[in-house]
Structure formats: C-alpha cells, structure tokens
Amino acid sequence: MAIAYVNKGAIGGGAGAASATPALPASITAGNLLLAVVMTQAATSTHTWPAGWTQIDQRQWNTGNTDAASFAYRVATGADTAPTVTLTGSPNYWCQTFQLSGTSSTPISAARSFATGLTGTHSSGSVVTTADNSVVLYLDAANNTTLLTAPAG
After folding, report:
1. 113, 58 contact by CB (below 8 A)
2. Are 73 and 125 a contacting pair, CB within 8 Å?
C-alpha cells in the first residue's frame, strides 16, 4: 500500500503559553500515522510530548535560540485524543497534526536532516533510508511563511 496524505487538523497557536494542543484531524482511522508539529518562539523553550507520542526531534535555531520546532508521531488507535505538549519559557506557539495512511507500525526511522538559517532558502542534507519501499517526508517549520518556496522534486 502506498503512503498517502489523508487530512490535517486545524492549525493552532497562541501567545505566552505553558502548553500547546495540536488539533487532531477529523475521521481518524486506526492504523494510520498521526504526525504532529509544534513550533515556538521564545528565548528558550523545550517541548515535552505526552505518553503515547514518540518525539522525532526538537531543534532550536535563529540568533539567540529564539525559535524551536519539535515533531512527534503515533499510530492511531481510533480512540485518539489531541496531545497536550508542555512548553517552557511561556512562548508564542503554532501547532498542527497530519494523518497519513499506508505506513508501517514503526513508521519513523532515525534518518533525518535539519538545517537552520535566516534566509528564504530552506534546504536539508541528504537522507539515506534503511528499509525497502521507504518514503522520505519533508517537513518545514518557519516563523515567516512568506519566505518559503516549495522544494524541488
């Protein structure tokens, strides 16, 4: 079965927050992959994902570490609730959750790349997959979406 985008939850955001709760997409199907992102803007901020969600990565970038993004996933059970992600530093935040079908029960590998910068060009290093029929998913988080351009390919 090919991996496919199903839908997404509403984008959320707030200011001076102690937590972020990315809304789940509608009509979640058991076995599908739920992939969520939280982005914060504060002098320092850490993101703690709740039990049942596997954090893929968290990185800070920008001068003075003012921006951070974390990504986490879970395989849907059909009785899922939106995760409440604990934030430090009372940051401004943005969050969203996506649903994908056709993934394996262990969908995320350690193969990932991360880049930082203050320009409109967003690029990432190469990613080497370790399993047959792997799919590479490109996620980009930025605090100024007017600077983003769709990646080639």
Report:
1. no
2. no
